[in-house]
Amino acid sequence: MMHLSSFFTVVVIALVFSFKSAAVDTNLSFVQCLCTYSHNSSSISKVVYTKTNSSYSSILHISIQNLRFASNKTPKPLVIITPQEVFHIQAVIICSQRHGLQVRIRSGGHDFEGLSYVAKVPYVVIDLINFREIEINVKNSTAWVQSGATVGELYYKISEKSKTLGFPAGAFPTVGVGGQFGGGGYGFLLRKYGLAADNVIDAHIIDVEGRLLDREGMGEDLFWAIRGGGGASFGVILAWKIKLVPVPPTVTVLRASRTLEQNATKLVHRWQLVGSKLDEDTGLGILLHRINSSNNGEPTIEALFQATYLGGVDQFIDLMQEKFPELGLKREECAEMSWIESVLFFVGFQRRELLLNRSQTITDSFKAKSDFVRTPIPEVALEGLWQLFYEDGAQGATMIVFPFGGIMDNISESEIPFPHRSGNLYLVQYSVHWLEEGDEVVQKHISWIRRLYSYMEPFVSNSPRAAYANYRDLDIGVNNKGFTSYNQATVWGFKYFKNNFKRLAHVKTKVDPSNFFRNEQSIPSLLPQGHK
Ligand SMILES: Cc1cc2nc3c(=O)[nH]c(=O)nc-3n(C[C@H](O)[C@H](O)[C@H](O)COP(=O)(O)OP(=O)(O)OC[C@H]3O[C@@H](n4cnc5c(N)ncnc54)[C@H](O)[C@@H]3O)c2cc1C
Ligand SMILES: *[C@@H]1O[C@H](CO)[C@@H](O)[C@H](O)[C@H]1NC(C)=O
Ligand SMILES: *[C@@H]1O[C@H](CO)[C@@H](O)[C@H](O)[C@H]1NC(C)=O
Ligand SMILES: *[C@@H]1O[C@H](CO)[C@@H](O)[C@H](O)[C@H]1NC(C)=O
Ligand SMILES: *[C@@H]1O[C@H](CO)[C@@H](O)[C@H](O)[C@H]1NC(C)=O
Ligand SMILES: *[C@@H]1O[C@H](CO)[C@@H](O)[C@H](O)[C@H]1NC(C)=O
Ligand SMILES: *[C@@H]1O[C@H](CO)[C@@H](O)[C@H](O)[C@H]1NC(C)=O
Ligand SMILES: *[C@@H]1O[C@H](CO)[C@@H](O)[C@H](O)[C@H]1NC(C)=O
Ligand SMILES: *[C@@H]1O[C@H](CO)[C@@H](O)[C@H](O)[C@H]1NC(C)=O
Which interval of the chain is the signal sequence (predicted)? Predict the structure, then answer.
């Protein structure tokens, strides 16, 4: 699979098309363009969904993860294309430019702000649902995985072939490989093996001219940029070649609940000093949220400690006794299992096959934000934080903290665009989820999480206050609809990418000078006329 075939060269590469900005054309003529520029128009017409198609809505909603962007008021694409062939994508890229339409690229649809399927200008969606082949090469510990696959599908395919190989991507199985690898991607194996993007060794991308390029063809600058800089600024990433990583036949999982009455505040405080220093074979994260106490029904805060350890339970308990005795870990809070079972364990799946079910996910409305913490937050500040979780707007709120350290300290900040390495104790994800509809409810939760974010300001990284690109947050700054200067974009760009932002902008200027691939947080072109 994934050999660069030559047929497309004949089809589209030869096309030299003008970049003259065309007025937005009718839907029909865009679709006609697709057919004209595909050598097999009968084949492309089968993957084109216009608004009048009865399947349009179900295709659009197939992977919308955040219901905040699924209402009647949300802008909708003129056309959705679910390509089955490379030339389908090439045709969309060319015809969208001709017809002045923006393109949004969707793999798993988990973007926190819905950027893969929502735009405020006329646009089309390329949904990669049909590009999800996975080829595992056990002998060489590598795999080719197409962007439309989910990380759950990837884990499943690895486990079919080997019990001692894994991959350090996210814990949540329905997330798309396309978005996640492009923005970094981390899970329980982070401290030993780094990010998903750290383990990418080749990729296939279709660029603004419709060329299909592998690592050699795209060059090291672009290959650097798409491993953490977000694919959507540069082209359509079709597939990734990844390095699989060794895991032992038996791993240990930990899940331990501690409420405020069980000294959660002290434990969280202590964890801040311990988490990033533990053996790299473990990643001990904490999920924090409000619950009703089991004794008296009064609200309290639960700290749910969760870890995977790449080794047996005895070793793990010894390790925790030595490094974090305050937790008072009990053996029954741990369990031994295979690595793939540990993946299932944390999402509560009973069967491995559920990893293949792309709708196996709770969809609700949510807003999330992120931070990096570099010095421990004082206990008294944690107590103030808990107070915020008792507010009305915090219903459905969680805060997840995950330790860095380990191999993250060994990788330079400029190795790939993801810059958050040495010196970070942990990453924080704040989120608030709700099911009700209506502006008032939305405002209540969103203003709550914004207040939480300002409360945290003194305790987290600053200059810049760093954020994780995969936890997209439009509150930290957006591009203009038209031209956006590099300086303006640094407002959000430095938070995600620090000093790598400049190099990202240089790569962008080289590969997509006219800024065709753009969105509210795409890397700007440095050319002054860089927008169409
Ligand atoms: C429930 C949930 C759990 C999560 N868990 C984790 C976790 O454990 N670890 C972690 O690191 N992150 C996690 N995330 C964040 C997740 O990694 C990002 O939201 C990621 O970008 C989603 O990828 P996607 O393909 O599903 O999303 P999409 O919405 O399809 O895409 C996200 C962005 O990438 C672009 N993009 C997608 N595919 C391509 C492509 N093929 N070529 C070019 N650009 C593309 C889109 O245009 C969009 O800008 C989680 C998110 C959710 C909603
Ligand atoms: C495309 O078609 C839809 C529905 O048929 C219509 O509402 C919309 O205005 C059309 N857009 C353009 C740009 O023609
Ligand atoms: C065109 O596509 C159709 C449907 O995918 C297929 O049946 C047909 O063989 C293709 N024709 C050519 C010339 O490739
Ligand atoms: C909707 O679009 C799909 C894909 O192009 C096509 O196969 C189907 O026939 C269309 N359905 C209708 C009712 O137009
Ligand atoms: C493994 O990699 C080597 C060296 O890159 C290559 O020659 C060989 O064909 C690969 N083996 C398989 C099974 O792909
Ligand atoms: C909480 O900590 C105190 C001392 O700091 C200790 O005496 C007490 O046993 C702890 N409570 C629990 C439930 O662990
Ligand atoms: C907790 O208690 C409150 C008030 O009694 C109730 O409204 C809420 O549903 C309870 N939450 C849970 C998760 O049980
Ligand atoms: C996938 O999961 C959803 C939600 O749990 C369920 O409704 C559906 O039947 C499942 N599909 C398959 C094929 O198992
Ligand atoms: C990080 O580098 C140190 C020193 O070279 C080494 O001992 C350690 O094993 C490395 N950590 C990881 C997780 O690779």
Answer: 1-23
Residue 51 Cβ < 6 Å to ligand 4:
no
Instruction: Provide the pLDDT for residue 6.
Output: 36
Ligand positioned closest to the Cα atom of 43: 3
- For residue 42, what pLDDT is reported? 76
pLDDT digit string, tens, across residues 321-333: 999 999 999 999 9
Separation of CA 354 and ligand 8 centre (Å): 8
What is the residue whose two structure tokens read 């500040």? 381
Q: Are residues 111 and 151 in the same domain?
A: no
The per-residue pLDDT for 230 is 96
Residues 452 and 304 grouped into a single domain: yes
Contact by Cβ (8 Å): 13, 209: yes
User: Are residues 138 and 175 both part of a single domain?
Assistant: yes
Report the alpha-carbon distance of residue 162 to residue 44 in Å, rounded: 37
Shared domain for 210 and 332, answered yes or no, is: no
The last residue of one of the domains, among 420, 444, 459, is 459
Do 301 and 401 fall within a single domain?
yes
Do residues 369 and 429 share a domain?
A: yes
| C-alpha neighbours within 13 Å on the C-beta side of residue 518 | 29
Q: What's the pLDDT at 327? A: 98
SS3 category, 79: strand
Ligand nearest to the CA of 300: 7
Q: Are 251 and 338 in contact (CB under 8 A)?
A: yes
* Chain centroid to CA 53: 30
Residue 257 lies in a domain: yes
Q: Strand, coil or helix: what is 192?
A: helix
Range of the domain at 183: 134-246
Same domain, yes or no: 226 and 115: no
Which atom of ligand 3 is nearest the CA belonging to 84? 5
